[in-house]
Amino acid sequence: MDRNGGAAGYMAEFEQDVFVSYAHRDNDQIAGEAHGWVDTLHEDLSRTVNGILGRDARIWRDPEIRNNEDFEKKIVARLGSTAAFLSIVSASFVNSEWCRREVREFAERAEKRLGLLVDGDKKRIFKVERFPVDRDTLPDSMQGTTTYQFFDKAKERPLRPHMIAEDAKAYYERLVDLAKDIARLVSIMQRTFGEARPPDPAGRSATAAPGAASPAAQAVYVAEASSDLDDAVDQMRRDLKDRGYVVLPDGDLPRRAADYRRKVEECLARCDVAIHPVGIAYGFVPEGETKLSNVAMQHELALARAESGGLKQVVWIPDAQRDDPRQVEFVRYLREDPRATAKAELLEGGVEDVKTEVLDGLARAKKERDRAEAERKEKEARAAAQSAATKAPDGAPGPVAAEPPLVYVVCDRADRGSPGLKALRRTLIEAGCEPMLPLQDAEDADALADHREKLASCDASIIYWGAGPPRWFEAKLADYRKSLRNRTPPVKAKAVVIVGSDADKEEAETLEAELLRVGDAFDPAALANFLGKLPRPAP
Q1: Is 348 helix (H, G, I), strand (E, B) or coil?
Q2: For residue 501, what are the contacts with CB-CB under 8 A and spacing of at least 6?
Q3: Residue 11 gets which letter from DSSP?
Q4: Do 242 and 383 have their domain in common?
Q5: Residue 203 and residue 240 share a domain
Q6: Residue 255 belongs to a domain with what CATH number?
Q7: Residues 494 and 352 in one domain
């Protein structure tokens, strides 16, 4: 890839995909290195992003020191047609007016064109820390963006993988993390704002970034921890992202207590599981907070969310010597306080134990969510069917069903073979329904079991009251109340057909089912409303 121009970007909406902003002093070259530090990172990043996307992305930077006129003509215009911004952060970057101006120009043009945030909360700005800096000194548009630390924390020097062998692993891990996140961003922007460019002449085609989380992916909160656990936390975040989970917070947290709490609560509200790594140091106390460290504050907020339901807490306390009395007291609280232990899984083993517990919690949360979603869809389907049945005019055909609706006709033995029951069954069959009758000549236990099974499986039911005594009718109505009133799925229609006339039948009233008095002869028209509530069998 050319560093300055030429090929168009991965996204058709933009001419360039990523601009690398840096202070030229940071492109230093130590004896034994073939290229400057920024040269090397640029080349490595380009190759890695291209490998993830499956085609070339356009990552560019300005290798020259320009005057104000050149900046206006050649840099500002191109920033407006660039999808993402990567800053190489150091003291030199912070003190460079040109670097700060590049950030400002990109942010202003991004806001005017599609916005600075993508997918709700992902900023189009990334930052690589070559040297540790006070992040409060960075421009506002860089606050809350993800930081990729390309320096040795213990020695506070940049990672130099081609010069110092022990730096290679850390450098490569951070490089891949950065490349994956850039690939995810441009893939999201492609889906949201436009299409990727057509395949290039070499036949390479655009693909979604591997490991990119789907819109419905589960989210995990990995709490900010003290620096002694940075490598383990990075490993957890990396593994969870590669498995397709959303890992929050996605970017640096604010340093002011009120903003810190608000952001953490926003992240926790989206998560099924929160992981709390507890290291040897107490952590920092956010500005405006009088006592709680950032580690303790995140735990407190997650505990409140867990108590209200919907969040599983996993507290990881690696075995280590803790000398700060505040941290010693905090660990004692986590292990012994009834409130802290009631909703949390406390682990003191290795990082693999933590990942196993987290994945189990995510699986259980997904199973519960899927069950709730299935119940919701079933309720919506029942409500829609009931609404359609209610709105159907008398005698109008109902919705189509794959199989004939099963109609259980509850009748006394004395009515079997009666003209009225035969006419009722014939009407049901002609309407495309399958009538079922109670077992005949069965033992009482078998007949009762059959009766209950048919009440449980029928699509609709009719009590046919002809020859049966009043207490028989009352018993069958009681069965309706017990077995059909709250049945899942509910029956689509219930009716009582009263044949003949006497004092008991004339006084009979019920709201449990549609009441149809047909006199001495069954009239098929009486079932029009009942049949209108049932689905028609498919032709």
Answers
A1: coil
A2: 517, 519, 520
A3: B
A4: yes
A5: no
A6: 3.40.50.10140
A7: no
Q: How far apart are CA 37 and CA 30, in angstroms?
A: 9
Amino acid, res. 5: G
Average pLDDT over residues 292-306: 94
Q: What integer best gives the mean pLDDT of the chain?
A: 84
Tokens found for residue 152: 């040795």
- Rounded to whole angstroms, the Cα distance separating 29 from 486 reads 77
Same-domain status, 41 and 5: yes
For residue 18, with 0-12 CB atoms within 10 Å meaning exposed, 13-18 middle and 19 or more buried, which class applies?
buried
Which string of b and e fits 66-79 if b means at least 16 CB within 10 Å? eeeeebeeebeebb
Domain finish residue from 361, 391, 421: 391
CATH number, domain at 439?
3.40.50.2300
Number of domains in the chain: 3
**Once rounded to an integer, what is the mean pLDDT over residues 225-244?**
88
Q: Is the pTM of this model over 0.90?
A: no
Check residue 169 and give its pLDDT: 92
**Strands (DSSP E) found in 71-217:** 82-89, 117-118, 122-123, 125-129, 147-149, 151-152, 157-158
> Are 428 and 374 in the same domain?
no
Whether the CB-CB separation of 8 and 73 falls below 8 Å is answered with no
Q: 88 and 162 share a domain?
A: yes
381: confidence class by pLDDT, cuts 50, 70, 90: low
Backbone φ, ψ for residue 376 (5° rounding): -60, -45
Amino acid 124 reads R
Query: How many angstroms separate the Cα of 357 from the Cα of each of 226, 237, 274, 277, 348?
Result: 21, 14, 11, 13, 12
* Domain C-terminal end among 335, 364, 391: 391
- Rounded distance between C-alpha atoms, residue 206 and residue 194, angstroms: 13
With H, G, I as helix, E, B as strand and everything else as coil, classify residue 516: strand
Structure tokens given for 158: 């940049």
The boundaries of the domain holding residue 220 are 214-391
Q: Measured between alpha carbons, how far is 477 from 456 in angstroms, rounded to an integer? A: 15
3-state DSSP call for residue 316?
A: strand
Question: Using CA atoms, how far apart are residues 186 and 57, in angstroms rounded to an integer?
Answer: 9
Q: Report the chain's terminal Cα–Cα distance, integer Å.
A: 63
- Residue-wise pLDDT tens digits, 339-370: 999 888 999 888 888 888 889 888 888 888 88
Give the strand pairing for 157-158 and 151-152: antiparallel
CA 453/CA 406 separation, integer angstroms:
12
- φ, ψ (nearest 5 deg) of residue 306: -65, -40
Task: Copy the structure tokens of residue 340.
Answer: 């802290």
| Residue among 267, 266, 265 at smallest CA distance from 300 | 265
244 and 112 in one domain? no
**Same domain for 479 and 465:** yes
User: With b meaning 16 or more CB within 10 Å and e meaning fewer, what string describes 365-382?
Assistant: beeeeeeeeeeeeeeeee
Question: What's the CA angle centered on 141, arms 137 and 145, to 5 degrees?
Answer: 85
Q: Which two tokens stand for residue 89?
A: 């952060």
